[in-house]
Design brief:
The complex is a heterodimer of chains A (363) and B (319). With 363 residues, chain A is mainly α. Chain A is built from 15 helices and 3 strands. In chain B, strands 1-2 form a two-stranded antiparallel ribbon. The radius of gyration of chain B is 20 Å and the shape is globular. Classes of the chains: A mainly alpha (363), B mainly alpha (319).
């Protein structure tokens, strides 16, 4: 091993940002291994220079799933399926061409944003100081931040180009998208790290993954925004933020030490646990409310019972947690994902049933 | 470097049992931390009285943490003798620890360097945070080594960082860049010391005859334990937890004892390889530190360079 395998660089050094982007003159890949004084002018990072042979090998599918966060696509695909089903059932399929374009555009945009999120978290330091629960492609040296950034811009540009015809066909969408862009810009300006790490960031993600997302789909379809779609958006946004709170809770110690601000670090370990319970019951309340108003009574009863059943191991797990660093956090994450997947699955089945009922009526 | 760390005259004789307790506590210690303070202070030509104050400070903090630690862990032995909380009372052990920390603040504030007082207070806070977090992990046998590292950064490494930085602060040398490097060096030394100490629990380089599987039996999975269990399934981890002897523990790897030993040694070698990377990183930081030192200060590099041999490999440095 050569003596120049490591290099420690201050933030003020021009090489600092160059290395963070993954570029070096030697051709070896600089990977940050130590970060001190995150977010301060005296921030210092030690890089390890890895040759191609030293970078751990990974198959393409594993790489892709971690790179674009494949398992989180439910967050954007389920609302799409809901909006499609609802409009199909209500005979409001005014513009199928636009919705296909919107779906494609959203998939590309979401993949691009996920990669962008990793790039931002890598540059800001969030990923460099927190303990990762799954492999981070940039930190593993599988890809440079520069290449990842280029891919994310390409995907987002592709998404924009695909969506252009929708703006012409459904010009109402311009208002929704303008609102979303303003939200993102505002959050980026206010937050110091990445937009998911401040209180405002959590609110923004709620709007982006909830009401704004379904409103965008709905408008792309040529159908007007209605109470049911917006209510679904609020429910879905609340469920998405539930996962974000769990994620932030599992990084509580490292985030607090790195002075990262979010609801969990603001509240601290004990209050954060209570807040998660509150958030879960809020979500459950919204679930019951939504089903009460928009679904048959049987669906309301059955689905609520299923969710209550799934929430028992989750709440037991949450109660069992006595350390902000221990292995129980991994189990809590698993339980919360199970609940979320169950929410998505129930919606999926309910939508399938609606489609089936509609087809039986028609044919 | 022969510092006067503890003297009965420094503490009020009218307090029952206090000096007896301290006599026993300070008599068995190796004083490695004050030795480290000396290794840094001498090349910097720190005034001998200040050196003594620094050496005493770090040993007081360390011993206070031991008094509290033994009670928290319910450890029966300390340095081969009955732990203070058992021999006297838990109340006396807590108060004796608190009193040492109070003396640290009295002594340092008398010295008058407010930055030193502030930094020392921060280190004591870190130490306590580490203790608190470690206690919250007792009984968690599925914890990951990265999570344990966070505890060790606070609990063990903070004192090593102090040993490296305090002599510079005592000389009113506050350059942020310099302290950054010293911090990193201290963190690595603390981490290496802790990991090596954790290996003793599995009878690796256990020249001092430390009790085998002591951490595991007290419900604490240490860093080498976490390293080994990271590749085990749940059933194997359960068997690992219940192990009362090393032989039973090694039998998890293979029913054939020779094969089990080979696999175990391979795991030790893999753990050593990870820590060799840390050692390499330590030497990288020493090169950076050297560029910040002038004249006789450069001797500091010579003093710090062999520490990884002593702290991790537990052997005398080669000439």
């Amino acid at each position: 091993m050569s003596a120049t395998r490591f290099q420690t660089i201050k933030k003020s050094d021009p090489l600092f940002i160059q290395y963070l982007w993954g570029e070096s003159q030697s051709g070896a890949r600089p990977v940050p291994i130590e970060t001190f004084n995150l977010g301060l002018p005296e921030e210092t990072v030690t890089f390890e220079f890895l040759t191609r042979d030293q970078i751990s090998k990974v198959n393409f599918l594993t790489f892709l799933s971690h790179f674009i966060k494949l398992n989180s696509f439910t967050l954007v695909l389920m609302p799409l399926f809901f909006v499609l089903t609802k409009n199909f059932v209500n005979d409001r399929y005014n513009d199928p061409f636009s919705i296909i374009l919107a779906a494609l555009s959203m998939i590309l945009l979401y993949a691009g944003l996920n990669i962008r999120n990793d790039v931002v978290d890598h540059l800001s330091g969030f990923d460099r100081v927190n303990i990762a629960f799954y492999p981070k492609p940039i930190l593993k040296g599988w890809i440079t931040a520069k290449t990842a950034s280029r891919i994310s811009w390409t995907l987002m540009t592709g998404s924009f180009l695909i969506s252009l015809p929708i703006f012409i066909l459904q010009n109402e969408l311009i208002r929704v998208v303008t609102g979303v862009i303003l939200l993102i810009i505002m959050s980026q300006l206010v937050s110091k790290n990445s937009y998911k790490n401040t209180l405002l960031g959590e609110m923004t993600l709620f709007l982006l993954l909830g009401p704004a997302l379904v409103a965008g789909y709905q408008v792309s379809m040529g159908a007007g925004i209605d109470t049911e779609v917006l209510s679904f958006g609020v429910l879905w946004g609340t469920a998405s933020v539930f996962l974000i709170h769990i994620n932030n809770f599992s990084h509580l110690v490292t985030s607090a030490q790195a002075r990262i601000k979010n609801s969990m670090t603001n509240m601290g370990f004990d209050n954060a646990k209570k807040f998660i319970i509150f958030w879960w019951f809020l979500l459950l309340g919204m679930w019951i409310g939504f089903h009460w108003f928009f679904m048959p009574l049987l669906n309301t009863l059955l689905s609520t019972l299923i969710l209550i059943g799934f929430s028992v191991p989750f709440l037991i797990q949450l109660k069992k947690i006595k350390s902000p660093l221990g292995s129980e956090l991994r189990h809590l994450r698993k339980e919360s994902v199970k609940i979320f997947v169950m929410i998505a699955f129930i919606f999926f089945v309910e939508n399938l049933l609606s489609i089936g009922t509609k087809l039986n009526w028609t044919y | 470097m022969d510092y006067k760390i503890y003297s009965a005259q420094d503490f009020p004789a009218y307090l029952p049992k206090l000096n007896l307790l301290y006599d026993e506590l300070f008599s068995g210690g190796k004083g490695f931390r004050s030795y480290l303070v000396g290794l840094v202070s001498e090349p910097l030509q720190v005034d001998p009285q200040v050196q003594n104050l620094l050496g005493q400070t770090i040993e007081f903090i360390h011993n206070a943490s031991l008094l509290h630690d033994d009670l928290v862990d319910r450890s029966h032995l300390r340095r081969g003798k009955k732990a203070a909380w058992l021999k006297y009372t838990p109340e006396y052990a807590v108060l004796a620890g608190d009193y040492l920390l109070a003396r640290v603040m009295v002594n340092l504030s008398n010295h008058g360097n407010i930055r030193l007082v502030q930094y020392t207070s921060e280190i004591i806070s870190d130490l306590l945070e580490g203790e608190w977090l470690q206690d919250s992990l007792v009984g968690d046998f599925f914890v990951k080594i990265e999570q344990l590292d966070r505890v060790h950064f606070l609990k063990t490494a903070s004192l090593f960082k102090w040993c490296l930085r305090a002599p510079f602060i005592a000389l009113n040398k506050y350059e942020a860049e310099l302290h950054q490097i010293l911090n990193e060096l201290g963190s690595i030394l603390g981490q290496l010391f802790q990991r090596s100490d954790d290996l003793l629990d599995f009878n690796i380089r256990n020249h001092e005859g430390k009790a085998i599987l002591g951490d595991l039996k007290s419900g604490y999975l240490n860093s080498f334990g976490a390293f080994m269990t990271s590749e085990m399934n749940k059933a194997e981890i359960n068997q690992f937890i219940k192990s009362q002897t090393l032989e039973v523990m090694k039998a998890i790897f293979s029913s054939d004892s020779a094969n089990a030993e080979t696999i175990f040694q391979k795991k030790v070698a893999a753990f050593d390889a990870i820590n060799s990377n840390l050692i390499e990183l330590y030497h990288h930081h020493l090169v950076t530190l050297e560029s910040m030192l002038v004249g006789p200060e450069k001797k500091l590099i010579k003093n710090l360079s062999p520490l990884t041999e002593i702290l991790y490999w537990r052997r005398k440095p080669q000439a």
